[in-house]
Write a structure and sequence with these properties.
The chain is α/β, with parallel strands linked by helices. The chain has two domains: 181 residues, Rossmann fold (3-Layer(aba) Sandwich), CATH 3.40.50.720; 110 residues, Orthogonal Bundle (6-phosphogluconate dehydrogenase C-terminal fold). Strands 3-2-1-4-5-6 form a six-stranded parallel β-sheet, with helices on both faces. Strands 7-8-9 form a three-stranded mixed β-sheet, covered by helices on one side. The two termini are 34 Å apart. The protein binds NADP nicotinamide-adenine-dinucleotide phosphate (NAP).
């Protein structure tokens, strides 16, 4: 058997992402030792019970000490404090990365605490579910999903020209070992792309579910009874972790507001088309969006099975990857 890619891998945060990463790291034989840390003693005890890591530490410092790879897997708003805490024990040559859903704010909050000689390579696996906590994790979460790395020092635009730096290449190899396909971007570009593909859809879902629950002339039971008419799919997204998503919106404010501006303009155009009975405008848009759905299926990023494949094809644990 070949040598693992890393000696010790420290995973800070043992929820959906951290637990999945621990399981994928083990499945891929990517570390000689996996150390984990979570904020609460309940989560640490559960992680130990589940056998997610070789060692579960009571402090972030203890987990990060002697680690060759440190992965921040807490909500984005906690990264700065975590980085400050572990900075004194980071060993020269170690790689610090993260799984946070935003990247510019992570560079801003974590970057200043990274000591000389330690490599900081931010990352974001585009894989998730609406579940949270250590029990939600599963090794297959990253299989066939993109992981975007946003290595620093490449300037604006495409970051692929710094992808061959040793620490970036090693981290890319790690993610491939976890089942992902790896892509490189600069942090700003990442935040714009994710604002429209992930953050705005979540905001819309939170909003529509909130509106429905506020409606006084539609009873709650009717909303639930007839939810298969489209509403149900929004409720899945709107069930996502409130802390994580609060932090995403607070930390990707500009990109989200920019996309929200575009979105509300387009929504007004739709409103006008409905008001003036402009069926051609509606038909043209709905045909264009159907093509986009087809291209997502063709790219292998979703299933064409009716009901999004959710009932038809959950994995062995009944969990379905939803790429959040
Ligand atoms: P999660 O299931 O709620 O787990 C979060 C973990 O972080 C828990 O172990 C929690 O510990 C710990 N934590 C919370 N606050 C902390 C703090 N202040 N200091 C230290 N640790 C803290 O969340 P998740 O879904 O795994 O998300 C984790 C990260 O992954 C986020 O940055 C998110 O943006 C990113 N991400 C999520 C998805 C997704 O679909 N969920 C997809 C891609 C990326 P306790 O349990 O002890 O509170």
């Amino acid at each position: 058997m070949s040598e693992p890619l890393f000696g010790r891998v420290a995973i800070l945060g043992l929820g959906l992402l951290g637990a999945s990463l621990a399981r994928a790291t083990r499945r891929g034989g990517l570390a000689r030792q996996i150390a984990g840390y979570a904020r609460s003693s309940e989560t640490r005890a559960r992680a130990a019970e589940l056998g997610l890591c070789d060692v579960v530490c009571d402090t972030a410092k203890d987990a990060a000490r002697n680690a060759d790879l440190i992965v921040l897997c807490a909500p984005v708003g906690a990264f700065g404090a975590l980085a400050e805490t572990i900075a004194p024990v980071l060993k020269p040559g170690a790689i610090v990365t993260d799984v946070g859903s935003v990247k510019s704010a992570v560079v801003r909050d974590v970057g200043p605490f990274i000591p000389d000689g330690v490599h900081f390579v931010p990352g974001h696996p585009i894989a998730g579910t609406e579940q949270s906590g250590p029990d939600a994790g599963f090794a297959e979460l990253f299989d066939g999903r993109w992981c975007i790395l946003t290595p620093l020092g490449g300037g604006q635009g495409d970051a692929s020209h710094i992808a061959d730096r040793a620490e970036v290449a090693t981290l890319a190899q790690f993610w491939r070992g976890c089942g992902s396909d790896v892509e490189f971007m600069d942090p700003h570009h990442h935040d714009l792309v994710l604002a429209i593909t992930s953050h705005l859809p979540h905001l819309i879902a939170y909003n529509i579910v909130g509106t429905a629950s506020d409606l006084e002339d539609v009873t709650q039971s009717d909303v639930i009874k007839y939810s298969a008419g489209g509403f149900r799919d929004f409720t899945r997204i709107a069930a996502s972790d409130p802390t994580m998503w609060r932090d995403v919106f607070l930390n990707n404010r500009e990109a989200v507001l920019e996309m929200l501006g575009r979105f509300t303009e387009d929504l007004s155009a739709l409103q006008r088309a409905i008001r003036w009975g402009d069926g051609d405008a509606l038909f043209t848009l709905f045909s264009r969006t159907r093509d986009i759905r087809r291209s997502i299926i063709d790219a292998g990023q979703d299933s064409a099975v009716p009901d999004f494949g959710r009932h038809a094809k959950p994995d062995a644990a009944g969990k379905t990857n939803t790429d959040d």
